[in-house]
Amino acid sequence: MSRTAKISRKTGETDIQVAVNIDGEGKSSIDTGIGFFDHMLTALSKHSGIDLDITCKGDLYVDGHHSVEDVGIALGKAFAEALGDKVGIVRFGSASCPLDEALGEAVVDISGRAYLVYECTFAQDKIGELDSQLIEEFFRAFASNAGITLHVKCNYGVNDHHKAEAMFKSTARALRQAVSVDPRFGDQVASTKGVL
């Protein structure tokens, strides 16, 4: 079974194309027009093992909000579509990743229930050209549209780049664990309800 999906999303604010391969090699082609955001999405792909192809043409003359949030929406939808009925997946994943002085942590449940708990305080308003507050908006949009529960935080750190990257890498590793298939589940899902 191929766990892939392609999503096109066009609004008056953004024009986005997303392709996802859950069982990829962590290869990516990312172009959102926001360099630091591209860097974070590349890290998400590499460390999750999920191939991502993302292009976004957004109204960056306004600011980055629409582009970042809408990429989260489209990526979440593609992720959910690629996972399909979620038969056999481990479902839960957790990871902690350091980047020098910063430590990120993420816990994920591919539950069909969307929820985000986010904890991180940045020292600066921007990291490169990315408004630092938009990192939370991305994670919220992704979790909501993927139908996952995501707890993500930076436990501590000094450098904002390091803090953000530690959270993206932690999320990637948690997702890698959660989407993996456990043959012991057979054609079942990891839920006492029988559905996810």
| Spatial order of the strands forming the largest sheet | 1-2-4-3
Principal-axes geometry comes out as: globular
Tell me the distance between the termini: 18 Å
CATH homologous superfamily annotation: Imidazole glycerol phosphate dehydratase, domain 1
Taking pLDDT < 50 over at least 5 consecutive residues as the criterion, the unreliable ranges are none
Beta-strand share of residues: 25-35%
Tally of strands: 10
CATH architecture annotation: 2-Layer Sandwich
Number of helices: 4
Question: What is the SS-derived class?
Answer: alpha+beta
Give the SSE order as H and E letters. EEEHEHEEEEEHEH
Major β-sheet annotation? 4 strands, mixed
Write down the overall mean pLDDT: 97
CATH level 1 class label: Alpha Beta
* Rg: 16 Å
Query: Please, how many domains?
Result: 1
What is the fold named in CATH at topology level? Ribosomal Protein S5, domain 2
Helix content: 25-40%
